[in-house]
Amino acid sequence: MRNVRYRPILRPRRGEPAALHHLxxxxxxxxxxxxxxxxxxxxxxxxxxxxxxxFADSGLTACSCRTFVLMSLTAALAHARHGIPVVPVHAPAxxxxxxxxxxxxDRPGKHPLLRHGLRDASTDPRRIEMWWDRWPTANLGLVTxxxxxxxxxxxxxxxxxxxxxxxxxxxxxxxxxxxxxxWHFWFRPLGYGNRVRLxxxxxxxxxxxxxxxxxxxxxxxxxxxxxxxxxGVLPDASDTLRELVxxxxxxxxxxAIGHPERYAEAALTASVERVANAPAGTRNDTLxxxxxxxxxxxxxxxxxxxxVRRELETAAWRCGLGRAETRATIHSGLTAGxxxxxxxxxxxxxxxxxAL
Length: 356
Description:
Layout: H1 6-9, H2 25-37, H3 44-48, H4 62-81, E1 86-89, H5 125-134, E2 139-143, E3 149-153, H6 156-165, E4 175-177, E5 183-187, E6 195-199, E7 202-205, E8 210-213, E9 225-228, H7 239-246, H8 260-276, H9 283-299, H10 305-319, H11 323-338
Antiparallel strand pairs: 1-2, 2-8, 3-5, 3-7, 4-5, 4-9, 6-7
């Protein structure tokens, strides 16, 4: 199969300068590895189907739109070929809002377009092409916890904290410079869920999570770009980082649970209240911890999974979390909790009966 070449795919339209159809150096450095991975792809028919009106609210020019579509779709297909589930994500609007159209959206350009969020993520190239046919300016989301976990660093403090966890030097692996000025560092999956505020300025995206990937755009106007492209074996997390992500084992007071039915009912009520009243900035983490604790009770046969999901989804809606994010977090927390089920106390022995 022939390698994909950039020049034959997009040709200047009449009256448009040819130079606008070539990637600038930063964009070329960002997308070149993806082009090297992909082959035999002709996007010209797909791009020609996109009406100019589809880009009206994106803040992109006609020429840069065609380049952005090419880069985004090619990147999505390449990641999917390497086993990373892909999800189209809302994009920031030209006015600083979000393509979802919700006034005051607290995650512009960062939440999935799909009805069921990460549950609908896919590696199927036909489905991915269909998504970008429908939403040509979508940002690109990659599901974590399957091929990679990601250390999400949003400040210099978080960067120094991550370095400290590795004894002074972060191992060389895939690295993304985010549109908000932070960094994403890829590691081999640990098998744990998301951890918000693992340390100041540092979050962990694991099972049930996702990250925004190049060449997506940030609400600030900047773009996500590769600092170090994927290639070879992903680095392992240090023992210290692994223990921090795993967190302390949760055990109810006294080990085994006495009066299990009453305990489970009280735990569900208290967890739902904590989630519903969680302050901004802690909501997702509070939901994840509540789902994990209640998942242990589900695993021990003390609660029904459907009841827990329904109550937690209602509480998350009350505190302002989005549907896709809520369902992904609940699924991750419940699954992890059910792997270490809570153990009810054994019934007291029956005394005073004579053997027959």
